[in-house]
Amino acid sequence: MTIVRTLVVLVFMHAYIFAEELIQHGGFEEEGYTAFWDCTNCDMARVQDSHGGLYALKVENRADESAGPHQTVNVTRNAFYGAESYVKLLTDEEGSVHTRLELFTKITHTDGTKESRKIGNGPYMTTAEGWKKLGGVFRAPEKDIDDLKIYFKGPGPSVSFLLDSVSLKLIPEMSDNWKEEANETIQQIRMADINLEVFIGDEYELSDVEVRVDQVRSKFPIGAMVKADRILDENDNKYREFVSETFEWITIANALKWRLMQREEDLLDYEKPNQTVDWLVEKGKEIRGHNVFWGVPKNVPEWLKDKSAEEVKKHVDDRLKGVVQAFKGRLAHWDVNNEFIAGHGDWYEQKTGDRFLTEKMFQNISVIDSDVKLFFNEFNVINGGASTDALVDMAEQYKAKGLPLYGIGTQGHLKNTGYPDILRIKVNLDKLATTGLPVWITELDTPAVDINDRGDYYTDVLTYLYSHHAVEGIIIWLWHDDGNMRKNYTNLAGGLGNDFQLNDAGIRVQNLLRKTLRTNKVIKPTSQLSTMAVRAFMGDYTIKVLHNGETVLEKMVTVGKEGANVSLQAGSGLSCVNRWSAQSGVGNGETVTVPCDDGEIMTGCSSRTIDKSEYRDGERFGRDSSTKERFCKAINSAGSTAPVQAIARCCKLPVDLQCSYPPAQTSGTGDNEQISIPCPSGEVPTGCACLAYRMTFDGSFPDMNTSSCIAQNDGENGGSVGTGACCQASGLECVTKMSERSGDNQGDQVSVSCDAGYTITGCNVYNDFGGTAGAYTAPGDGNGLCIAFNGRNRTTPNQGVKAVVTCCRIAN
């Protein structure tokens, strides 16, 4: 999948790299450059201090900020272009800690109208930093163009600079099938397989069973901006309920901003943001902190502006320590210094004279809260592109210095100019992706007057953003109409209190987020053991097995890039049957054996006399030395008048069930003497067997405390031989149950069953007074019954036999 995505990007880049160059003499390598370049109100000359080749253009003696070199280029109406250049300061701007150059288009239309558009914000730079990239993208106007100039300008007139490697190329349009391609990419990068292995126990009717796969949380965050006042307004419950049910991530619009938390120097409001954050955390929301600082002058606290540089530093330090500590552990992200790059938001740097103040903000926040993820948050990126290259440059600087920058936030207030420019979004995201940092769309809104268009725009943009490999999360911004003029064109809902409701565009976005980009499926198993793969969006899931609509098994599963393997075993998780031997001959030492079928594993072994008498010598687990086949063996006894039968208990699930059979051991010859046959480490006894010639045995039972089979002797005619099955499987749990005593007459029977969810793996008979006629598993009581038979008439009351059952399940 990575290879396919990389090839798509390379093909796109190849088309751009080898597109026709529209700038003439962009490398200034030949004297003829003056025929194409002009410098209005400034001087220009070639110098041998270059970014590429031998020469660059020196620009000096600038009359004002607008003075700079420019070239007229031929462009096609409504086509999309990428501009690139490299600049180097020769003088720093007086009175500024850093400066930047800007790239513009100046357009004259055939009807005489003119317009100027900024297409590139240069990075903040000084003379010490050498060459820096200045570039951007633009779409040519739809109106007929008479003249279009690429123009460099920006710093004060005292600044001289070098210019080199200027390029302008057509960027090819996206495929008409971009939406289908985006959905294919989503399948590849946002989804993974849930491999289900479903076992339905015998206690459930298969036709009445269904498996529900329900996504409860997305790995890919999509959230929204909320107003603190509305979250705290108990009369606005419909709004609050919608937020709680729809969005997993939240940005609080204003309540965390310094200017609004501290409108006056001595008045600091933590109550509103604290209460809002507490409510959101209680609802399980992840919160983006917006923001610690905002250096655009109009968003700086008014009372701070007249302070001295040292006073500002002190207040910056107090603000940072106070707000970060106050919300430590409750916020997932912080926007550190909002619009620092794109919005000329460097007030704090310029006021304090500390060019690296924002870097220190990142470092100091990380010291206080090392878990919170720190972001840039910039505009004019995917909605324009003028600041993208500068943002990339700043991100690379932070990475090189080892600063705790986690990701890049780009706001995404798209323009109200018709259908969104998906190509513009793609090109700018591709640039951000080169940093290797996660990208968040932090403030997305897509305006349209027509409500149907708005639904189209939102769903298409969200689909494309969701498909881009660099995008890690999305926050929808102006989605609710509360009087903001822009919201008239971007809102997805409106109304206060009980009047809150989604509009048609909002319903479509809600369906996209809660249905299209989520996985919820109902599956009907077709057999007792079913395997199936579900292609699912990554995230957290509840997977349930239901029988007649009632949940009988539930698992929480997280699906990541590698998918998830899920075993669902409703019921015991074991499928076991009896295998009956033929009848033995009549007489002392007559034997009969029975194996399990192919694919089955023997977990229990018992025997019985056909006439329900005590005349049998018992049973044992055995193995055919030639075929290596396991069997259950029954032995008839002296004095018998009827055959015996062997009953093997044979299981075939789960798939990792394995059993071993320790060597037989013999007890002492005294009455009630026992022998313990221990299971290997990690295995449990699932069935035990006992034999003694001349019928002198009391029977056998598992001891789960010691993971052993116990065989008990009766009388003094020889010891009793014990054997057992010792098994292991993932989640295997076994218990032993023993019935009350049977009646005292020959043929009286007694039974015991397993609890719900368990399966019988072994059934036998035990009596400390001897005289047993055998035992076997029979249908009944949900999971079956272990039935034991008394083998003699007893003159002393209360000496009947007991049924012993081993009950096992696979614990989920």
UniProtKB/TrEMBL annotation:
<dbReference type="GO" id="GO:0031176">
    <property type="term" value="F:endo-1,4-beta-xylanase activity"/>
</dbReference>
<keyword id="KW-0378">Hydrolase</keyword>
<dbReference type="InterPro" id="IPR001000">
    <property type="entry name" value="GH10_dom"/>
</dbReference>
<feature type="domain" description="GH10">
    <location>
        <begin position="227"/>
        <end position="512"/>
    </location>
</feature>
<dbReference type="GO" id="GO:0000272">
    <property type="term" value="P:polysaccharide catabolic process"/>
</dbReference>
<comment type="similarity">
    <text>Belongs to the glycosyl hydrolase 10 (cellulase F) family.</text>
</comment>
<dbReference type="InterPro" id="IPR017853">
    <property type="entry name" value="GH"/>
</dbReference>
<dbReference type="Pfam" id="PF18463">
    <property type="entry name" value="PCSK9_C3"/>
</dbReference>
<feature type="signal peptide">
    <location>
        <begin position="1"/>
        <end position="19"/>
    </location>
</feature>
<dbReference type="Pfam" id="PF18459">
    <property type="entry name" value="PCSK9_C1"/>
</dbReference>
<keyword id="KW-0732">Signal</keyword>
<keyword id="KW-0119">Carbohydrate metabolism</keyword>
<dbReference type="InterPro" id="IPR044846">
    <property type="entry name" value="GH10"/>
</dbReference>
<keyword id="KW-0677">Repeat</keyword>
<dbReference type="Pfam" id="PF02018">
    <property type="entry name" value="CBM_4_9"/>
</dbReference>
<dbReference type="InterPro" id="IPR008979">
    <property type="entry name" value="Galactose-bd-like_sf"/>
</dbReference>
<dbReference type="Pfam" id="PF00331">
    <property type="entry name" value="Glyco_hydro_10"/>
</dbReference>
<keyword id="KW-0624">Polysaccharide degradation</keyword>
<dbReference type="InterPro" id="IPR041051">
    <property type="entry name" value="PCSK9_C3"/>
</dbReference>
<dbReference type="InterPro" id="IPR003305">
    <property type="entry name" value="CenC_carb-bd"/>
</dbReference>
<protein>
    <submittedName>
        <fullName>Uncharacterized protein LOC106181604</fullName>
    </submittedName>
</protein>
<dbReference type="InterPro" id="IPR041254">
    <property type="entry name" value="PCSK9_C1"/>
</dbReference>
